[in-house]
Amino acid sequence: MYQEICKNCSKLYIPKRRGVQKYCSDSCRSRAYQKRKSTGLKKPAGLTTKKSEEVKNESSPTINAASIMNAFIAAFGYDAIKGLLTPAGSKSVTRNDLNKLIERIDRRYIQLRNVPMRNDGTYAFCDKKTEALVYLKIKNHGV
């Protein structure tokens, strides 16, 4: 039979899991943990913990880019910021966009592009309500 020495109480014992078990019983394992915890042995390197007094004494929190961005999103809303950062070609169509398109299609006057401009600077339009040809002066050609 294979026997090992308990790392806590130094008694001989037969391990149930050879090579893995270090203590003779659960109570010995627990006592060893309590000893390590109280003396500070086997603490992983680089691991530091703040005491509650240190946390209470910190007067000002640190400000970083993530906290600024979170505050900005909270103030202006996610959808507004997403709209600013999304390229124009990738934005989805909104109800307002559709209404503008319908209004543009349903305009009363439709420019007749095959009729040349008159000498007085007016362009030919078709009035949808009266179904008549009218000449209107426009600021931008091609509207």
Which key phrases capture this entry?
143 residues; 3-stranded antiparallel β-sheet; rod-shaped; 36% helix; single chain; alpha+beta; two-stranded antiparallel ribbon
Q: Order of strands side by side in the largest beta sheet?
A: 3-4-5
| Separation of the first and last Cα atoms | 98 Å
Q: Please work out how many helical segments DSSP would assign.
A: 5
| Biggest sheet record | 3 strands, antiparallel
Order of helices and strands: EEHHHHHEEE
Shape: rod-shaped
Number of strands: 5
Poorly predicted spans:
none
Protein name: DUF2116 family Zn-ribbon domain-containing protein
Describe how the helices and strands are arranged:
Layout: E1 4-5, E2 12-13, H1 26-39, H2 52-57, H3 65-76, H4 78-85, H5 95-105, E3 109-111, E4 123-127, E5 132-136
Region (Disordered): 35-60
Protein name: DUF2116 family Zn-ribbon domain-containing protein
Organism: Salegentibacter chungangensis
Description:
- This protein has helices spanning 26-39, 52-57, 65-76, 78-85, 95-105; strands at 4-5, 12-13, 109-111, 123-127, 132-136.
- The strands form 2 sheets. The protein has a 3-stranded antiparallel β-sheet with strand order 3-4-5, with no helix packed on it. A two-stranded antiparallel sheet has the order 1-2.
- With 143 residues, it is of the alpha+beta class.
- It has a domain at 4-39.
- 36% of the residues lie in helices and 12% in strands.
- This is DUF2116 family Zn-ribbon domain-containing protein.
- It comes from Salegentibacter chungangensis.
- Residues 35-60 are annotated as: Disordered.
